[in-house]
Specification:
By secondary structure, the chain is an alpha+beta fold. It has 3 helices and 6 strands.
């Protein structure tokens, strides 16, 4: 019996890297970040972690890691990792192939970036029009806890 995940259009990390190198396009994975649950409240996503595999323009690939809260222009992370720096936990994820990433997208709020990535992947998803929603600006000194992006504080 075939695993249903194998037919959902997503690629393994190795397949995604091959796709990026062959097509000079991108592949992405987005994961929600949930806040702490107290009592009987329903847990809701507060932000996201986004991993974008992309051609580096110099004959290799790189992984862009972006994390932050929804509806804010503050980011907990916006980093580029070379192939040798990618953790095994990321290599276990599955990626959606998509069109190349426009540099301006990386300045958008997390939910708008996800919306643009989904559209670039040709996924027919019903998503709210996040670009039309009002934004909140965080102060320049705002820092999000390391736990928000899933890294230990040591």
């Amino acid at each position: 019996m075939t695993d249903p995940q194998e037919n959902d259009g997503r690629l393994s990390f190795k397949e995604a890297v091959a796709y990026v190198m062959r097509e000079r396009r991108a592949a992405f994975c987005a994961m929600p970040v949930f806040g702490e649950v107290t009592g009987d409240e329903e847990q809701t996503a507060e932000g996201a972690r986004i991993f974008i595999l992309e051609y580096d323009g110099e004959g290799d690939w790189q992984l862009r890691f972006i994390a932050g809260p929804f509806f804010s222009n503050a980011y907990a992370a916006n980093e580029i990792l070379a192939p040798g720096e990618v953790p095994d936990s990321v290599r276990e994820l599955r990626f959606m192939p998509c069109a190349p990433i426009e540099p301006a997208w990386l300045d958008e709020q997390i939910q708008i970036l996800i919306q643009k990535l989904v559209k670039a992947a040709g996924i027919a998803a019903q998503m709210p029009d996040y670009e039309a929603m009002p934004s909140r600006q965080a102060d320049a000194q705002t820092v999000f806890p390391i736990s928000f992006i899933g890294r230990s504080s040591h």
